[in-house]
Amino acid sequence: MNDTLLTDGHDTQKLVMTQIWDDRLHFSQVSELPVSFAPTTFAHIVPKGKYQRWKTIPMNIILLTPEEHHDYDFLTHKVINDSKWVWVFEVASLIKRVDTLINRINPSLTLKDCAPFDGQIKELINEAVAILVKHTKKRKKW
Q1: How many CB atoms are located within 10 Å of the residue 30 CB?
Q2: Residues 39-45: what's their mean pLDDT?
């Protein structure tokens, strides 16, 4: 797993967005439609408010069109049964499971604090990364 997937949680969202923009091709990861650099292009797979440690973690951020981002955040019922979105909900489930495991150890830990990952946490993160790799057009390797 590439360390850029687990950046320091202290990076600003703007820096993380720029890193993602430089690293990935500029297409929606759901529809493959072209996207432009704007805050509405960057969607958190799990909500940044509820899952604070994932706020600036690139593996929790995907590129979407503004309409897709809105639908994912506010009209989940509209996209949850759409086959193009299945992988997003799979990754969300895996991230939530990792978050639960980390909270059981110590709720104040960051992902970096948990490195090197071992056991179930590492397996879940690797599974999430494998799904993301299939659905991300990258300029560089993970």
Answers
A1: 22
A2: 96
| Plot region of 119 (φ>0 → left; ψ -120 to 50 → alpha; else → beta) | left
Residue of 44 and 142 predicted with greater confidence: 44
DSSP per position, 25-82: -SB-TTT--B--SSGGGEEESS-TTT-GGGTT-GGGEEE--HHHHHHHHH-HHHHTT-
Instruction: Tell me, yes or no, whether 101 lies in a domain.
Output: yes
Contact 28, 71 (CB under 8 A): no
Query: How many domains does the structure of the chain reveal?
Result: 1
Whether 109 is covered by a domain: the verdict is yes
* Integer Cα distance of 1 and 51 in angstroms: 21
β-partners of residue 139 are none
